[in-house]
Every structure is written in C-alpha cells, then in structure tokens.
Design goal:
Layout (H helix, E strand, L loop, with lengths): L2 H20 L22 E5 L26 E3 L9 H10 L20 H4 L4 E4 L4 E6 L3 E6 L16 E7 L2 E7 L19 E10 L2 E9 L8 E10 L15 H18 L1
Parallel strand pairs: 5-6
Antiparallel strand pairs: 1-3, 1-10, 2-10, 3-4, 4-5, 6-7, 7-8, 8-9, 9-10
Length: 272
Amino acid sequence: MSIGLRRGQLAIAAVTVFTALALPGRAIEPQPIGRMPDGKPDMSGVYEPDHGGGNYGLEKHEPSKGNLAPGGRGIIVDPPDGKLPMQPWARGEQNHRALPEGAYDDPSVHCFPDGIPRSMYHPQPIEILQPPGYVVFLFERMYWRIVTLDGRPHPPDTTRFWQGDSVGRWEGDTLVIDVANFNGKTWLNENGEVLSHEEHVVERLTPVDSNTITYEATIIDPAVYTRPWTIRFPLRRSTDQLLEQACHEDNQELPYLKELKDAAAPARRVGR
C-alpha cells in the first residue's frame, strides 16, 4: 500500500472519528444496574453532571447582571434552608471574590485543578473507570482522580494536593469516598465561595439505574464554616466521549480579567 493512500485513509478515518465524537450524546434507555465480576455496581462510562449551576454558586441564585453567569436551582440539601453556613469572615471574602475584578484570582481561570467537590459539578463530561482495586475519574478539563479501594490510609498531613487524596470503600451499592489532604487553594465556584486547608469531604455515589448516579458530598471545613453541609445532584450517562481541552492555549478570558483587576487596584488603594 502506498504512503499516500495510507495517509488518505488515515485522514478519512480521523475525520470520521472526530465527527462521531462531536455529535451530541444520544439518549440511553435506562436498564438495571450493571455489575462488575465482584458484584459491585458497574459505573464505568461517561457522565454529564446535572449540576444545577453549581459552578456559579451553590445556593439558589438568579442570573448575574447582563447574564454573564447563569442562574442556578441550588444544590445544597443540608442545611435545609439551602444556604452555606459561612463564618462572617468567609462571607466577606466571598463577596470580595465575587466582584468583577476578583475573578482573575480564581485558580480555575489559570488552569489549575478545580478540587473536590467542584470537579464534580464543573460543566464538563466525566468518565469513570473501574480497574481492579480502584475507581478513576477522568475530567475533560485536563485532570483526574484516583480512588483507592484497598483500605490504605491517607498520606501524612504534610502532603497536600489540589484534588485531595481519595480513599474509597463500598457500603452496599454506594461508593463512599473520604477525601483529605487538600492544599486549601481551590474555590468552590466562580462566585468565590471559600475553602481552606482544613477541608475534608465525604462523597457518596449511588447508582439509581444503569444511566444515573446520585452524587452527594458532605464538606467539613471548620476554618470556614460553622457546621458541615451537603450538596446533591445526579450524574447522567452520556454517549459522548472526552475530547482534548487545551486550557492554556484557549484561555482567552485571562487577559480581560487581568485588565479588570488592574483597573480596580487604584480605587482599592484610595479606599484604604
């Protein structure tokens, strides 16, 4: 076979694959929960989080002025009022971050990992893999999580990560993940809701059927919040596949956000 013919066939194949990946996901009829050889639920596949606008505010909120950020239904289920139990200093910090000039300081804008739980409700597909002894989460936005299932302890407290350290176990059909060792640098969302290095998360992923997983996370962070609080939303199976996302290469909003921050600096100095 000539090189030219092979290249032509490869080009056609590449276009075919790219077109297939770019097509919207088709609806999948729900079936009973699949099982792995060990009897545990088979959650492997690609999912879209039904995130309720969590990346723009975990509490129920209206669209921002000018519709720059969408509204959200709120995904906090505890406390019952759907409000984050922030300490006063944290609410003040969040209000400052929520200003237009504060957006530049969001680590996610600079392509750092989103942390937990934000990775789970950032608008992006998530692929779950279940090799023996692990559950792996692949996020389209360049990063991943590896959940160990062998009962190993967390690393020493001096070892810190953007995504934390994830240790999992099964409780019936629910995957429970204990996440610790955070570096305290992540934001909960673009609204600037606060986390610290004392963050500790307990996640619960429960399959409802073959297409749906209920995701729940309880956040304990005594440096920021007056009590633990919990979010909940579904992950829905998709026929899509993860695509490459080159965050730095396509990060066109960063210069604009830097201009907003620099323009606000003189006003902040005058106000002191």
